[in-house]
Design goal:
This is HEAT repeat domain-containing protein. With 270 residues, the protein is α+β, with helices and mostly antiparallel strands. The chain is 38% helix and 30% strand.
């Protein structure tokens, strides 16, 4: 296996259902010869040239650092270093994705939590030794790492199910949900393109706005409608009326009705 083979597998996983996407990615966590070969090659390059930079993206968020080998709408593959927490986390992050984790320098130690209803409950301890592959369905599972055990290095893949991803932040002490977020990267790109069309005054692109109104999340549909109204209010009135009458979400229907009321012309005083 090679880094080029990983890119092929990620492309193949892009349109597959979740189980099929995982089947494409699992072999690269089971056999990490490609990663070891890449690290050896990059170390050799850095010895020869102190200014050499590895040709992958690096990122950092707080105590977590990544080398990013693949980053698409649904698939992330990274080499990750997590600095040890000073104390156990007070909140749990259920990412909404399926995670494959292979520890590289020491075992993964922690406590597994699951979701029952809207609450997080303890499921028991986790011990994943170096060389094993820990699988977590982070739509309904989260791992709370044991503090103070030293930095943890691992090869990690996250695979999203098709469609929007729902992530949750849950308080450990109470088990209650503290925050919800729904992410759909494909729609985020679509909305950016619609914004550019609106800024350019491209009224000839109204069909693109119509097509985007079938977005799966209520907030997405309303965001598209706002862009449509800003581009061409007259053209957007008919789909706005449809939204006010038949959108599946009550809040979106209410917003559409309120907007229509503001757009209706004032009756002539004569």
């Amino acid at each position: 296996m090679t880094l080029a083979a990983l890119a092929v597998a990620v492309d193949a996983a892009a349109d597959a259902p979740l189980d099929g996407a995982l089947d494409h990615i699992r072999p690269f966590l089971a056999d990490i010869g490609w990663f070891q070969a890449w690290m050896t090659q990059q170390a050799r390059c850095m010895r020869a040239d102190p200014l050499h930079l590895p040709p992958v993206r690096a990122s950092r968020h707080g105590a977590v650092r990544h080398l990013v080998f693949a980053r698409t709408e649904r698939i992330w593959v990274t080499a990750t270093i997590i600095d040890p927490p000073a104390r156990a986390a007070e909140r749990l992050h259920f990412s909404g994705r399926y995670a494959l984790c292979r520890p590289l320098n020491r075992a993964v130690e922690g406590e597994l939590f699951g979701i029952e209803g809207d609450r997080a409950v303890r499921r028991g301890p986790i011990h994943a030794p170096v060389g094993s592959v820990l699988e977590l369905d982070e739509r309904r599972e989260a791992l709370r790492l044991t503090p103070g055990a030293g930095p943890l290095m691992m090869l990690r893949a996250q695979v999203a199910p098709p469609g929007p991803v729902l992530s949750r932040l849950i308080d450990v002490a109470s088990g209650q949900v503290r925050a919800l977020a729904q992410a759909d990267e494909g729609h985020a790109r679509t909305l950016m393109l619609l914004s550019l069309l609106r800024l350019q005054g491209r009224t000839d692109a109204a069909a693109c706005f119509d097509a985007a109104l079938d977005a799966p999340l209520p907030a997405q549909r309303w965001a598209v409608m706002r862009e449509y109204l800003a581009l061409d209010t007259a053209a957007a009135l008919a789909p706005l009326a449809d939204m006010a009458r038949a959108d599946p979400d009550a809040q979106v229907r209410a917003l559409a009705r309120q907007t229509m009321a503001r757009l209706e012309p004032e009756p002539c005083p004569a």
